[in-house]
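$ ./design --mode recover --in tokens.txt
reading tokens...
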């Protein structure tokens, strides 16, 4: 890095002038963006998505498809173009659920009965012979739960040999391993076989296993506004699925998901219409409503696999913005604030206005990797979620009481306007967020 000669008197003055200039431009920009977001239109969108007719928009259901088709219609009204691989804005894919089925497991020449092994599938079938996969041993002095679950979390192909003295903890491991696993169709993930048998890393084995497979259809909704820079994408997203039908509470069994996340989807639709009205942007803009966030983030995982993460300049993932934050009605918090300067760019863009973007007040909850931004963030994209809801005290979160009547529509509308204003410098190419440190 080249050194710079300090200019002790002029730089502060220059900084002050630049700050005043930024503030002078931010206020009218915010006013312009906010004026383009109509409160009645926002209320129509969120009310439709959270209506009883949508029946809670549970992933993989006809109700979710009904919601997706409504969103696609709104994208068409905005004049968006379809994205590559999406027909009429609908990006269809499948999610496979693998369940345990009878298998043949031989370790060190001994065939094992079904109560002595469990298979956690990452592919529909396996045929392993000695030397094909890693052998991990949980001996008498090891923590079998830590070993078995650590291997599963790592997502590798492995045979886990658990000493028979750990029979009691093996029951817990079996319960976890036998749960159906889910993966996006066309992808592969690690398979683990947990065996209650003594062994060493040099043990011999012969394993033949096939899962019972259920494929469930899923669909994202994707539209775009092509920009002058066709290889630089700014992504605005929200998940449209919710929990569907739940246990009845005072006669109400529909988890409408007004705040979670009809509010975020309403924002994405409104932003699409806002930016479409501005003409051709500098950077290409993508607008995505993800499915199956509540079921494991499958919509964002599939969508992310269709893009080069190096070409994604920023991701605005919008989550639950229908209620004012603990710090007030004109504020929104950004997850992973310290992982890039994304949040600072938004705040600079609205400096001098009534609105403020600030750091996630719930770091202990690990929210940065708990939403649809997680897949791209793990790949180094400055992908952040924007929210306003005080989730630590919100009694309607994941409840059938998450109704439109509990939302502050004016706050929701104002927040959408703030996001539009905060995104302007990134959309125009004047600002580019730093990259997030990728996960290994």
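writing sequence...
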């Amino acid at each position: 890095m080249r050194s710079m000669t300090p200019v002790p008197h002029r730089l502060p003055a220059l900084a002050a002038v630049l700050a005043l200039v930024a503030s002078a431009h931010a206020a009218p920009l915010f006013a312009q963006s906010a004026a383009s977001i109509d409160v009645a239109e926002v209320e129509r969108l969120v009310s439709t998505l959270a209506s009883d007719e949508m029946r809670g928009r549970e992933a993989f259901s006809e109700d979710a498809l009904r919601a997706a088709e409504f969103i696609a219609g709104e994208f068409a009204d905005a004049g968006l173009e379809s994205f590559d691989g999406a027909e009429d804005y609908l990006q269809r894919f499948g999610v496979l659920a693998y369940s345990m089925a009878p298998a043949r497991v031989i370790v060190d020449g001994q065939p094992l009965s079904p109560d002595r092994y469990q298979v956690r599938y990452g592919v529909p079938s396996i045929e392993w012979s000695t030397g094909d996969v890693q052998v991990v041993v949980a001996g008498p002095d090891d923590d079998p739960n830590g070993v078995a679950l650590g291997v599963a979390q790592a997502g590798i192909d492995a045979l886990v040999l658990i000493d028979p003295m750990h029979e009691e903890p093996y029951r817990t491991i079996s319960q976890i391993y036998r749960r159906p696993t889910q993966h996006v169709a066309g992808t592969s993930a690690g398979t683990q076989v947990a065996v209650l048998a003594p062994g060493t890393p040099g043990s011999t084995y012969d394993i033949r296993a096939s899962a019972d497979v259920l494929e469930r259809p899923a669909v994202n909704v994707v539209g775009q506004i092509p920009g002058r820079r066709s290889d630089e994408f700014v992504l605005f997203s929200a998940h449209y699925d919710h929990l569907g039908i739940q246990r009845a509470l005072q006669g109400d069994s529909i988890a409408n998901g007004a705040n979670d996340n009809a509010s975020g989807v309403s924002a994405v639709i409104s932003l699409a219409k806002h930016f479409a009205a501005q003409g051709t942007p500098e950077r290409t803009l993508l607008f995505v409503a993800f499915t199956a966030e509540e079921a494991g983030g499958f919509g964002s995982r599939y969508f992310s696999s269709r893009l080069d993460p190096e070409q994604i300049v920023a991701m605005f993932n919008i989550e639950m913005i229908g209620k004012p934050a603990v710090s007030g009605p004109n504020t929104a918090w950004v997850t992973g604030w310290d992982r890039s300067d994304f949040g600072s760019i938004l705040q600079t863009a609205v400096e001098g206005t009534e609105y403020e973007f600030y750091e996630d007040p719930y770091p202990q909850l690990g929210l940065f990797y708990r939403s649809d931004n997680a897949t791209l963030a793990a790949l180094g994209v400055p992908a952040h979620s924007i929210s306003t809801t005080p989730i630590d005290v919100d009694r309607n979160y994941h409840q059938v009481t998450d109704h439109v009547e509990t939302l502050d529509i004016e706050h929701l509308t104002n927040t959408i306007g703030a996001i539009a204003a905060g995104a302007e410098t990134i959309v125009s190419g004047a600002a580019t967020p730093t990259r997030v440190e990728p996960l290994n």
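exit 0
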